[in-house]
Specification:
Length: 222
């Protein structure tokens, strides 16, 4: 129960609420729309939306910008299969023990047209001075008297290109890389006076106009 002091306040509050409700406008329900009117309005809305969509498409087509063709070349590459047998060469410096190292493969080269007065030590010293590589020479003996001497030497395969340079050898010296014992011909390089401006000369035999001493020895033995 409320006290007598709070009764007048409650009466005033109730009177204010009733007055505000009486002044508010009455809500009226909208008249029920017939199905025919609904179908007409729906059809009109659909036609209007379709008309608007076609208009938008036409307007968009007018604003379409055709891109210019690109005339630049395009590089197309096929994906290459990785070679399973590809190799690589080590570049690590040698360790202190030097127990694990690559094999020192030696390949033969033939020195021809050497003067009779030239000693083997002269050739070895010359090669050591020019290439810093010490080689061992083996003189090729022939039963036929010749005006020049021939030598066989073994050089490291890693430095083969250095020994096949015609600027390394004196003028007139012929270096034979390979020898065909059946025909007496091979691939040789010779030093020329114009060796600084011309490529190495490829000769069909050890010395022009001569035959391999190996074949001559075989013919005499036969």
């Amino acid at each position: 129960m409320t006290s007598n002091r709070q009764a007048p306040a409650l009466v005033n509050e109730c009177a204010r609420i009733v007055t505000s409700i009486g002044n508010a406008p009455l809500l009226q329900s909208s008249p029920e729309q017939s199905p025919a009117m609904y179908r007409v309005e729906c059809g009109t809305n659909v036609n209007t939306s379709l008309h608007d969509s076609f208009a938008n498409v036409v307007e968009t087509a007018k604003q379409w910008k055709v891109e210019k063709p690109n005339e630049q070349w395009v590089l197309v590459q096929k994906k290459r299969l990785k070679n399973r047998f590809s190799t690589l060469e080590g570049k690590a410096r040698k360790s202190g023990s030097d127990k694990f190292k690559a094999a020192d493969i030696q390949v033969p080269l033939f020195i021809n047209n050497v003067a009779k007065s030239t000693l083997e030590t002269d050739i070895v010293d010359y090669i050591l001075e020019q290439t810093r590589v010490h080689v061992t020479l083996q003189k090729i003996k022939s039963r036929v008297q010749r005006q020049y001497s021939s030598y066989k030497m073994l050089v490291p395969s890693a430095k083969l290109s250095l020994f096949l340079d015609d600027t390394l050898w004196p003028e007139g010296i012929t270096i034979l890389e390979k020898l065909d014992t059946m025909t007496g011909t091979g691939r040789a390089i010779t030093s020329t006076p114009e060796r600084e401006h011309t490529p190495p000369t490829i000769l069909p035999a050890i010395v022009p106009g001569t035959m391999s001493p190996y074949l001559e020895e075989k013919r005499e033995d036969g």
